Protein backbone atom coordinates (compact mmCIF):
# COMPACT_ATOMS: atom_id res chain seq x y z
CA UNK A 1 0.00 0.00 0.00
CA UNK A 2 1.22 3.52 -0.79
CA UNK A 3 0.57 6.69 1.18
CA UNK A 4 -1.95 8.12 -1.34
CA UNK A 5 -4.02 4.92 -1.03
CA UNK A 6 -4.50 5.21 2.73
CA UNK A 7 -7.92 5.76 4.25
CA UNK A 8 -7.83 9.32 5.68
CA UNK A 9 -8.83 7.91 9.07
CA UNK A 10 -5.78 5.62 9.25
CA UNK A 11 -3.98 6.27 12.58
CA UNK A 12 -0.29 7.21 12.57
CA UNK A 13 2.18 8.06 15.31
CA UNK A 14 3.65 11.44 14.42
CA UNK A 15 5.44 12.57 17.58
CA UNK A 16 7.18 11.16 20.64
CA UNK A 17 8.97 12.78 23.55
CA UNK A 18 10.85 11.95 26.74
CA UNK A 19 11.92 14.01 29.73
CA UNK A 20 14.01 13.15 32.78
CA UNK A 21 16.22 14.58 35.50
CA UNK A 22 18.46 13.22 38.22
CA UNK A 23 18.90 14.76 41.66
CA UNK A 24 22.20 16.56 42.11
CA UNK A 25 23.00 16.81 38.42
CA UNK A 26 23.23 20.02 36.36
CA UNK A 27 19.85 21.26 35.19
CA UNK A 28 17.86 19.58 37.97
CA UNK A 29 14.54 21.49 38.18
CA UNK A 30 12.57 19.61 40.87
CA UNK A 31 9.80 18.91 38.33
CA UNK A 32 6.46 17.48 39.44
CA UNK A 33 4.84 14.54 37.63
CA UNK A 34 2.77 17.08 35.71
CA UNK A 35 5.90 19.06 34.85
CA UNK A 36 7.75 15.98 33.58
CA UNK A 37 4.79 14.83 31.48
CA UNK A 38 4.35 18.33 30.06
CA UNK A 39 8.04 18.51 29.11
CA UNK A 40 7.73 15.17 27.30
CA UNK A 41 4.49 16.27 25.62
CA UNK A 42 6.11 19.47 24.36
CA UNK A 43 8.90 17.39 22.86
CA UNK A 44 6.33 15.12 21.19
CA UNK A 45 4.55 18.13 19.69
CA UNK A 46 7.85 19.52 18.38
CA UNK A 47 8.82 16.06 17.10
CA UNK A 48 6.00 16.23 14.53
CA UNK A 49 7.99 18.73 12.49
CA UNK A 50 4.82 20.83 12.17
CA UNK A 51 3.64 23.98 13.97
CA UNK A 52 3.61 22.74 17.59
CA UNK A 53 1.03 25.31 18.71
CA UNK A 54 -1.33 24.36 15.89
CA UNK A 55 -0.91 20.67 16.66
CA UNK A 56 -1.59 21.26 20.38
CA UNK A 57 -4.73 23.21 19.55
CA UNK A 58 -5.93 20.28 17.41
CA UNK A 59 -5.64 17.70 20.23
CA UNK A 60 -9.14 16.41 20.96
CA UNK A 61 -8.21 13.55 23.31
CA UNK A 62 -5.65 13.24 26.08
CA UNK A 63 -4.93 10.11 28.10
CA UNK A 64 -2.79 9.91 31.22
CA UNK A 65 -1.08 6.89 32.75
CA UNK A 66 -1.45 6.68 36.55
CA UNK A 67 1.47 7.50 38.81
CA UNK A 68 2.23 5.24 41.76
CA UNK A 69 0.63 7.69 44.19
CA UNK A 70 -2.73 7.44 42.41
CA UNK A 71 -2.55 3.70 41.68
CA UNK A 72 -4.29 2.44 44.83
CA UNK A 73 -6.49 3.84 47.60
CA UNK A 74 -4.81 5.54 50.54
CA UNK A 75 -1.38 6.22 49.06
CA UNK A 76 -0.06 9.53 50.44
CA UNK A 77 1.04 12.42 48.24
CA UNK A 78 3.50 14.28 50.49
CA UNK A 79 3.96 17.12 47.98
CA UNK A 80 0.37 17.20 46.74
CA UNK A 81 -1.03 16.21 43.33
CA UNK A 82 -3.35 17.34 40.58
CA UNK A 83 -7.07 16.65 40.83
CA UNK A 84 -7.11 16.00 37.05
CA UNK A 85 -3.68 14.87 35.86
CA UNK A 86 -4.55 14.60 32.12
CA UNK A 87 -6.04 18.09 31.97
CA UNK A 88 -3.19 19.58 34.04
CA UNK A 89 -0.71 18.34 31.45
CA UNK A 90 -2.94 19.40 28.54
CA UNK A 91 -3.18 22.93 29.92
CA UNK A 92 0.59 23.20 30.21
CA UNK A 93 1.06 22.53 26.47
CA UNK A 94 -1.80 24.63 25.12
CA UNK A 95 -4.30 21.83 24.50
CA UNK A 96 -7.99 21.98 25.41
CA UNK A 97 -9.29 18.49 24.60
CA UNK A 98 -12.93 17.52 24.68
CA UNK A 99 -12.02 14.14 26.23
CA UNK A 100 -9.59 13.35 29.06
CA UNK A 101 -8.84 9.78 30.19
CA UNK A 102 -7.09 8.45 33.31
CA UNK A 103 -6.17 4.84 32.57
CA UNK A 104 -6.23 1.85 34.94
CA UNK A 105 -3.14 0.58 36.75
CA UNK A 106 -0.57 -1.57 34.98
CA UNK A 107 2.56 -1.41 32.87
CA UNK A 108 0.49 -2.42 29.87
CA UNK A 109 -1.23 0.99 29.96
CA UNK A 110 0.96 2.93 27.48
CA UNK A 111 0.75 0.33 24.72
CA UNK A 112 -2.90 -0.41 25.48
CA UNK A 113 -3.76 3.28 25.13
CA UNK A 114 -1.92 3.46 21.81
CA UNK A 115 -3.86 0.42 20.59
CA UNK A 116 -7.18 1.73 21.86
CA UNK A 117 -6.88 5.31 20.66
CA UNK A 118 -5.54 4.21 17.28
CA UNK A 119 -8.76 2.22 16.91
CA UNK A 120 -10.77 5.24 18.06
CA UNK A 121 -9.13 7.38 15.38
CA UNK A 122 -9.70 4.69 12.74
CA UNK A 123 -13.39 4.66 13.68
CA UNK A 124 -13.61 8.41 13.16
CA UNK A 125 -14.35 9.18 16.83
CA UNK A 126 -11.16 11.21 17.33
CA UNK A 127 -8.54 12.85 15.17
CA UNK A 128 -5.61 13.83 17.40
CA UNK A 129 -4.73 12.00 20.64
CA UNK A 130 -1.92 12.81 23.09
CA UNK A 131 -0.90 10.05 25.53
CA UNK A 132 1.56 10.60 28.37
CA UNK A 133 2.73 9.46 31.77
CA UNK A 134 5.35 10.37 34.34
CA UNK A 135 6.83 9.67 37.75
CA UNK A 136 8.76 11.96 40.11
CA UNK A 137 9.24 9.38 42.86
CA UNK A 138 12.90 10.28 43.33
CA UNK A 139 12.18 13.99 43.70
CA UNK A 140 9.18 13.44 45.97
CA UNK A 141 11.17 11.21 48.30
CA UNK A 142 14.09 13.62 48.28
CA UNK A 143 12.10 16.77 49.02
CA UNK A 144 9.20 15.53 51.17
CA UNK A 145 10.97 16.26 54.45
CA UNK A 146 12.72 19.50 53.48
CA UNK A 147 11.61 22.93 54.74
CA UNK A 148 11.48 24.39 51.22
CA UNK A 149 9.58 21.50 49.69
CA UNK A 150 7.51 22.47 46.62
CA UNK A 151 3.74 22.16 46.38
CA UNK A 152 2.73 19.89 43.51
CA UNK A 153 -0.98 20.28 44.25
CA UNK A 154 -3.18 21.55 41.40
CA UNK A 155 -6.92 22.08 41.07
CA UNK A 156 -7.93 22.29 37.43
CA UNK A 157 -11.34 20.61 37.39
CA UNK A 158 -12.93 19.70 34.09
CA UNK A 159 -14.35 16.45 32.80
CA UNK A 160 -12.34 13.31 33.44
CA UNK A 161 -12.97 9.73 32.33
CA UNK A 162 -11.46 8.09 35.39
CA UNK A 163 -11.39 4.35 34.69
CA UNK A 164 -10.59 3.40 38.28
CA UNK A 165 -7.62 1.48 39.60
CA UNK A 166 -8.31 -1.76 37.75
CA UNK A 167 -6.89 -3.84 40.61
CA UNK A 168 -9.53 -6.57 40.51
CA UNK A 169 -7.88 -9.97 40.70
CA UNK A 170 -4.33 -8.60 40.91
CA UNK A 171 -4.13 -8.99 44.71
CA UNK A 172 -6.71 -11.30 46.29
CA UNK A 173 -7.68 -11.57 49.99
CA UNK A 174 -5.85 -14.92 50.14
CA UNK A 175 -2.67 -13.24 48.92
CA UNK A 176 -3.06 -10.42 51.45
CA UNK A 177 -3.48 -12.92 54.29
CA UNK A 178 -0.26 -14.64 53.24
CA UNK A 179 1.81 -11.49 52.66
CA UNK A 180 2.00 -12.06 48.90
CA UNK A 181 1.29 -8.48 47.89
CA UNK A 182 4.65 -7.17 46.72
CA UNK A 183 5.76 -7.57 43.11
CA UNK A 184 9.20 -9.15 43.81
CA UNK A 185 7.66 -12.03 45.77
CA UNK A 186 4.98 -12.71 43.16
CA UNK A 187 7.43 -12.70 40.26
CA UNK A 188 9.90 -14.80 42.22
CA UNK A 189 7.29 -17.56 42.34
CA UNK A 190 7.27 -17.62 38.53
CA UNK A 191 11.05 -17.59 38.16
CA UNK A 192 11.51 -20.38 40.70
CA UNK A 193 8.86 -22.46 38.95
CA UNK A 194 10.63 -21.86 35.63
CA UNK A 195 13.96 -22.94 37.14
CA UNK A 196 12.39 -26.17 38.30
CA UNK A 197 10.83 -26.78 34.87
CA UNK A 198 14.21 -26.27 33.20
CA UNK A 199 15.94 -28.52 35.74
CA UNK A 200 18.58 -25.92 36.58
CA UNK A 201 20.45 -25.42 39.83
CA UNK A 202 20.55 -22.15 41.71
CA UNK A 203 23.93 -21.02 40.36
CA UNK A 204 23.12 -21.93 36.78
CA UNK A 205 19.82 -20.08 36.87
CA UNK A 206 21.35 -17.01 38.54
CA UNK A 207 24.05 -16.95 35.86
CA UNK A 208 21.31 -17.01 33.23
CA UNK A 209 19.53 -14.05 34.80
CA UNK A 210 22.81 -12.16 34.85
CA UNK A 211 23.56 -13.00 31.23
CA UNK A 212 20.07 -11.86 30.24
CA UNK A 213 20.34 -8.47 31.94
CA UNK A 214 24.03 -7.56 31.51
CA UNK A 215 23.41 -6.27 27.94
CA UNK A 216 20.53 -4.18 29.28
CA UNK A 217 22.99 -2.31 31.53
CA UNK A 218 25.11 -1.46 28.48
CA UNK A 219 22.10 0.08 26.73
CA UNK A 220 21.13 2.01 29.88
CA UNK A 221 24.68 3.32 30.29
CA UNK A 222 24.36 5.02 26.88
CA UNK A 223 20.84 6.38 27.46
CA UNK A 224 20.72 10.00 28.67
CA UNK A 225 17.32 9.38 30.30
CA UNK A 226 18.44 6.33 32.31
CA UNK A 227 18.12 6.51 36.10
CA UNK A 228 21.06 4.12 36.66
CA UNK A 229 23.41 4.49 33.68
CA UNK A 230 26.05 2.04 34.90
CA UNK A 231 27.28 -0.95 32.90
CA UNK A 232 27.59 -4.08 35.04
CA UNK A 233 28.78 -7.63 34.41
CA UNK A 234 26.50 -10.64 34.56
CA UNK A 235 28.22 -11.86 37.72
CA UNK A 236 27.97 -8.48 39.41
CA UNK A 237 24.21 -8.34 38.82
CA UNK A 238 23.44 -11.59 40.64
CA UNK A 239 26.14 -11.75 43.33
CA UNK A 240 24.71 -10.74 46.72
CA UNK A 241 26.59 -7.92 48.43
CA UNK A 242 25.72 -5.24 50.94
CA UNK A 243 24.73 -2.96 48.07
CA UNK A 244 23.09 -5.75 46.09
CA UNK A 245 21.14 -7.51 48.79
CA UNK A 246 18.67 -10.32 48.16
CA UNK A 247 15.10 -9.01 47.93
CA UNK A 248 13.12 -12.19 47.31
CA UNK A 249 14.90 -15.35 46.18
CA UNK A 250 16.19 -15.58 43.47
CA UNK A 251 16.31 -11.78 43.04
CA UNK A 252 19.05 -9.42 44.09
CA UNK A 253 18.34 -5.71 44.11
CA UNK A 254 20.17 -5.05 40.83
CA UNK A 255 17.82 -7.21 38.74
CA UNK A 256 14.47 -5.83 39.89
CA UNK A 257 12.67 -2.73 38.61
CA UNK A 258 14.07 0.57 39.86
CA UNK A 259 11.19 2.82 40.92
CA UNK A 260 13.16 5.83 42.20
CA UNK A 261 13.10 7.87 39.00
CA UNK A 262 12.11 11.24 37.57
CA UNK A 263 10.91 10.40 34.06
CA UNK A 264 8.11 11.28 31.66
CA UNK A 265 7.21 10.23 28.12
CA UNK A 266 4.52 11.08 25.57
CA UNK A 267 3.17 9.76 22.27
CA UNK A 268 1.08 11.70 19.76
CA UNK A 269 -1.27 9.92 17.36
CA UNK A 270 -3.47 11.39 14.66
CA UNK A 271 -5.35 10.40 11.55
CA UNK A 272 -3.68 10.63 8.15
CA UNK A 273 -6.17 13.39 7.29
CA UNK A 274 -5.18 15.41 10.37
CA UNK A 275 -1.47 14.84 9.72
CA UNK A 276 -1.86 16.20 6.20
CA UNK A 277 -3.99 19.12 7.33
CA UNK A 278 -1.52 20.10 10.06
CA UNK A 279 1.49 19.75 7.79
CA UNK A 280 3.22 16.82 9.50
CA UNK A 281 5.93 15.58 7.10
CA UNK A 282 5.38 12.01 5.94
CA UNK A 283 8.86 10.99 7.08
CA UNK A 284 7.59 11.43 10.68
CA UNK A 285 4.78 8.91 10.25
CA UNK A 286 5.02 5.50 11.92
CA UNK A 287 2.26 2.93 11.52
CA UNK A 288 0.91 0.37 13.97
CA UNK A 289 1.03 -2.85 11.91
CA UNK A 290 0.00 -5.27 14.65
CA UNK A 291 -1.48 -4.98 18.12
CA UNK A 292 -3.04 -7.10 20.84
CA UNK A 293 -4.24 -6.77 24.45
CA UNK A 294 -4.75 -9.89 26.57
CA UNK A 295 -5.11 -10.73 30.25
CA UNK A 296 -3.95 -13.79 32.15
CA UNK A 297 -6.21 -15.37 34.76
CA UNK A 298 -5.63 -14.62 38.46
CA UNK A 299 -2.31 -15.85 39.81
CA UNK A 300 -3.50 -18.89 41.76
CA UNK A 301 -5.92 -19.91 38.99
CA UNK A 302 -3.15 -20.47 36.44
CA UNK A 303 -2.35 -24.10 35.65
CA UNK A 304 1.37 -23.47 35.07
CA UNK A 305 3.15 -20.96 37.29
CA UNK A 306 6.36 -21.22 35.27
CA UNK A 307 4.93 -19.37 32.25
CA UNK A 308 2.43 -16.72 31.19
CA UNK A 309 0.84 -17.89 27.92
CA UNK A 310 -1.41 -14.83 27.51
CA UNK A 311 1.63 -12.62 26.90
CA UNK A 312 3.03 -15.03 24.33
CA UNK A 313 -0.34 -15.30 22.59
CA UNK A 314 -0.59 -11.50 22.43
CA UNK A 315 2.88 -11.20 20.88
CA UNK A 316 2.18 -13.95 18.35
CA UNK A 317 -1.13 -12.38 17.35
CA UNK A 318 0.41 -8.93 16.85
CA UNK A 319 3.14 -10.43 14.66
CA UNK A 320 0.60 -12.45 12.72
CA UNK A 321 -1.48 -9.33 12.17
CA UNK A 322 1.61 -7.50 10.90
CA UNK A 323 2.33 -10.40 8.56
CA UNK A 324 5.87 -11.00 9.82
CA UNK A 325 7.78 -13.51 11.91
CA UNK A 326 9.76 -12.76 15.03
CA UNK A 327 13.02 -13.09 13.07
CA UNK A 328 11.95 -10.14 10.90
CA UNK A 329 11.91 -7.75 13.86
CA UNK A 330 14.82 -5.33 13.68
CA UNK A 331 14.33 -4.10 17.26
CA UNK A 332 12.44 -5.32 20.32
CA UNK A 333 11.68 -3.88 23.73
CA UNK A 334 10.27 -6.39 26.21
CA UNK A 335 8.99 -5.22 29.58
CA UNK A 336 11.70 -6.18 32.05
CA UNK A 337 10.54 -5.53 35.61
CA UNK A 338 11.94 -8.96 36.56
CA UNK A 339 13.77 -11.62 34.51
CA UNK A 340 10.70 -13.83 34.03
CA UNK A 341 8.83 -11.00 32.29
CA UNK A 342 11.46 -11.17 29.53
CA UNK A 343 12.21 -14.90 29.44
CA UNK A 344 8.51 -15.81 29.41
CA UNK A 345 8.01 -14.08 26.05
CA UNK A 346 11.38 -15.23 24.72
CA UNK A 347 10.63 -18.86 25.59
CA UNK A 348 7.30 -18.64 23.80
CA UNK A 349 8.65 -16.92 20.67
CA UNK A 350 11.94 -18.81 20.43
CA UNK A 351 14.13 -15.78 21.18
CA UNK A 352 17.53 -16.36 22.83
CA UNK A 353 17.91 -15.35 26.48
CA UNK A 354 21.71 -15.52 26.66
CA UNK A 355 22.32 -11.88 25.79
CA UNK A 356 22.99 -12.55 22.10
CA UNK A 357 19.83 -10.70 20.97
CA UNK A 358 19.09 -7.13 22.04
CA UNK A 359 15.79 -7.18 23.91
CA UNK A 360 15.62 -3.57 25.12
CA UNK A 361 15.82 -0.15 23.53
CA UNK A 362 15.91 1.84 26.78
CA UNK A 363 18.02 -0.26 29.13
CA UNK A 364 15.10 -1.92 30.91
CA UNK A 365 13.29 -1.25 34.16
CA UNK A 366 16.11 -2.19 36.58
CA UNK A 367 18.62 0.11 34.84
CA UNK A 368 16.85 2.66 32.66
CA UNK A 369 14.26 2.88 35.40
CA UNK A 370 10.74 1.75 36.12
CA UNK A 371 8.57 4.88 36.07
CA UNK A 372 5.53 3.18 37.55
CA UNK A 373 3.01 2.20 34.93
CA UNK A 374 4.62 4.37 32.25
CA UNK A 375 7.83 2.52 31.35
CA UNK A 376 6.63 1.31 27.94
CA UNK A 377 5.83 4.85 26.81
CA UNK A 378 9.59 5.34 26.77
CA UNK A 379 9.98 2.09 24.83
CA UNK A 380 7.45 3.29 22.24
CA UNK A 381 9.32 6.58 21.91
CA UNK A 382 12.55 4.70 21.28
CA UNK A 383 11.04 2.32 18.74
CA UNK A 384 9.52 5.22 16.80
CA UNK A 385 12.94 6.87 16.55
CA UNK A 386 14.48 3.58 15.39
CA UNK A 387 11.80 3.00 12.78
CA UNK A 388 12.32 6.45 11.30
CA UNK A 389 16.05 5.77 11.10
CA UNK A 390 15.42 2.37 9.47
CA UNK A 391 12.60 2.93 6.96
CA UNK A 392 10.73 -0.27 6.20
CA UNK A 393 12.06 -2.14 9.24
CA UNK A 394 9.83 -3.52 12.01
CA UNK A 395 9.99 -3.05 15.77
CA UNK A 396 7.95 -4.51 18.61
CA UNK A 397 7.06 -3.31 22.11
CA UNK A 398 5.74 -5.75 24.71
CA UNK A 399 4.16 -4.10 27.77
CA UNK A 400 3.37 -6.05 30.93
CA UNK A 401 1.08 -5.20 33.84
CA UNK A 402 0.30 -6.83 37.18
CA UNK A 403 1.97 -10.16 37.86
CA UNK A 404 2.35 -11.35 34.27
CA UNK A 405 -1.34 -10.41 34.33
CA UNK A 406 -1.96 -7.99 31.46
CA UNK A 407 -0.02 -7.80 28.22
CA UNK A 408 -0.26 -5.31 25.37
CA UNK A 409 1.82 -5.48 22.19
CA UNK A 410 2.51 -3.15 19.30
CA UNK A 411 4.39 -3.83 16.06
CA UNK A 412 5.64 -0.65 14.34
CA UNK A 413 7.03 0.35 10.94
CA UNK A 414 7.23 3.32 8.61
CA UNK A 415 5.82 1.12 5.85
CA UNK A 416 2.28 2.37 5.11
CA UNK A 417 -0.41 0.00 6.34
CA UNK A 418 -4.18 0.17 6.72
CA UNK A 419 -5.72 -0.08 10.16
CA UNK A 420 -6.46 -3.70 11.00
CA UNK A 421 -8.77 -4.67 13.87
CA UNK A 422 -7.31 -7.33 16.15
CA UNK A 423 -8.81 -10.57 17.49
CA UNK A 424 -7.97 -9.94 21.13
CA UNK A 425 -11.57 -10.41 22.31
CA UNK A 426 -11.76 -13.82 20.63
CA UNK A 427 -8.40 -14.90 22.04
CA UNK A 428 -9.36 -13.64 25.49
CA UNK A 429 -12.50 -15.76 25.43
CA UNK A 430 -10.33 -18.82 24.77
CA UNK A 431 -8.07 -17.97 27.70
CA UNK A 432 -11.03 -17.41 30.01
CA UNK A 433 -12.78 -20.63 28.98
CA UNK A 434 -10.16 -22.94 30.50
CA UNK A 435 -11.11 -24.22 33.98
CA UNK A 436 -9.17 -22.71 36.90
CA UNK A 437 -7.03 -24.79 39.22
CA UNK A 438 -9.00 -26.12 42.19
CA UNK A 439 -7.85 -24.44 45.39
CA UNK A 440 -7.91 -25.06 49.12
CA UNK A 441 -8.27 -21.71 50.86
CA UNK A 442 -7.70 -23.48 54.17
CA UNK A 443 -5.25 -26.36 53.80
CA UNK A 444 -4.20 -29.15 56.16
CA UNK A 445 -2.03 -32.19 55.58
CA UNK A 446 1.04 -33.38 53.71
CA UNK A 447 1.75 -31.55 50.48
CA UNK A 448 4.26 -30.97 47.69
CA UNK A 449 5.94 -27.64 46.96
CA UNK A 450 4.88 -26.31 43.55
CA UNK A 451 6.87 -23.08 43.78
CA UNK A 452 8.17 -20.77 46.48
CA UNK A 453 10.22 -17.76 47.47
CA UNK A 454 11.93 -16.47 50.58
CA UNK A 455 11.53 -12.75 51.33
CA UNK A 456 14.52 -11.00 52.90
CA UNK A 457 14.03 -7.85 54.95
CA UNK A 458 16.77 -5.31 55.60
CA UNK A 459 16.73 -6.41 59.25
CA UNK A 460 17.75 -9.91 58.21
CA UNK A 461 14.36 -11.46 58.96
CA UNK A 462 13.23 -14.03 56.41
CA UNK A 463 9.75 -15.27 55.48
CA UNK A 464 9.04 -18.18 53.18
CA UNK A 465 6.05 -18.20 50.84
CA UNK A 466 4.91 -21.48 49.33
CA UNK A 467 2.45 -22.47 46.64
CA UNK A 468 1.79 -26.15 47.14
CA UNK A 469 -0.44 -29.07 46.24
CA UNK A 470 -2.15 -31.25 48.84
CA UNK A 471 -1.21 -34.90 48.53
CA UNK A 472 -4.75 -35.96 49.41
CA UNK A 473 -6.59 -34.33 46.50
CA UNK A 474 -4.13 -32.21 44.48
CA UNK A 475 -5.74 -28.89 45.42
CA UNK A 476 -3.46 -25.86 45.33
CA UNK A 477 -2.89 -23.70 48.41
CA UNK A 478 -0.89 -20.67 49.46
CA UNK A 479 1.05 -20.69 52.71
CA UNK A 480 3.81 -18.98 54.68
CA UNK A 481 6.45 -20.15 57.10
CA UNK A 482 5.98 -19.46 60.80
CA UNK A 483 8.28 -16.87 62.38
CA UNK A 484 11.48 -18.56 63.50
CA UNK A 485 10.85 -21.87 61.68
CA UNK A 486 14.44 -22.41 60.57
CA UNK A 487 13.74 -25.97 59.45
CA UNK A 488 11.15 -24.83 56.90
CA UNK A 489 13.42 -22.00 55.75
CA UNK A 490 16.24 -24.52 55.43
CA UNK A 491 14.10 -26.60 53.08
CA UNK A 492 13.20 -23.54 51.00
CA UNK A 493 16.84 -22.48 50.69
CA UNK A 494 18.04 -25.95 49.69
CA UNK A 495 19.25 -26.54 46.13
CA UNK A 496 15.79 -27.41 44.76
CA UNK A 497 12.76 -27.04 47.04
CA UNK A 498 10.21 -27.57 44.24
CA UNK A 499 8.82 -31.07 44.50
CA UNK A 500 9.83 -31.32 48.16
CA UNK A 501 7.44 -32.68 50.79
CA UNK A 502 6.07 -30.30 53.38
CA UNK A 503 3.29 -30.18 55.95
CA UNK A 504 0.64 -27.45 55.91
CA UNK A 505 -1.66 -26.47 58.75
CA UNK A 506 -4.42 -23.85 58.72
CA UNK A 507 -4.93 -21.37 61.52
CA UNK A 508 -7.51 -18.62 61.25
CA UNK A 509 -7.21 -17.23 57.73
CA UNK A 510 -3.58 -18.28 57.26
CA UNK A 511 -1.92 -21.51 56.15
CA UNK A 512 1.52 -22.26 57.60
CA UNK A 513 4.01 -24.79 56.30
CA UNK A 514 6.67 -26.69 58.14
CA UNK A 515 8.81 -29.79 57.59
CA UNK A 516 6.66 -32.17 59.59
Automatic annotation (TrEMBL):
Residue intervals of the Thiolase-like protein type 1 additional C-terminal domain: 426-508
Classification via Gene3D superfamilies: 2.40.50.840, 3.40.47.10
InterPro entries registered for this protein in UniProt: Thiolase-like, TLP1_add_C
UniProt entry keywords in alphabetical sequence: Acyltransferase, Transferase
Pfam families: TLP1_add_C
The keyword Acyltransferase is assigned to this record: yes
Single Gene Ontology MF annotation: acyltransferase activity
Homology family: Belongs to the thiolase-like superfamily. Thiolase family.
NCBIfam families referenced in this protein's UniProt entry, alphabetically: PRK08257.1-4
Protein name according to UniProt: Acetyl-CoA acetyltransferase
Source organism (scientific name): Planobispora siamensis
Amino acid sequence: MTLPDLDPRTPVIVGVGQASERIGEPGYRRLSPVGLAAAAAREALADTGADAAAVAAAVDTVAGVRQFEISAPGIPSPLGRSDNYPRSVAGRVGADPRRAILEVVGGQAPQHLVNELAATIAAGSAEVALIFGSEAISTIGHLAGTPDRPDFGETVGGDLEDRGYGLEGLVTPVQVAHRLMDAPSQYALFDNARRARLGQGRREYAAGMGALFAPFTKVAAANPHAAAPTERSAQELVTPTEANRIIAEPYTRYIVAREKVNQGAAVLLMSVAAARRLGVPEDRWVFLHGHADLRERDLLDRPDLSAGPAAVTAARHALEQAGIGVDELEVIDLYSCFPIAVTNVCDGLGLPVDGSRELTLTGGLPFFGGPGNNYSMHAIAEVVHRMRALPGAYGMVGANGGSLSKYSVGVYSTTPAPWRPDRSAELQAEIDSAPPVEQAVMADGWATIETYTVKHRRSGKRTGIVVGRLEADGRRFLAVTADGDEAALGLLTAEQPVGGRIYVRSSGSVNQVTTG
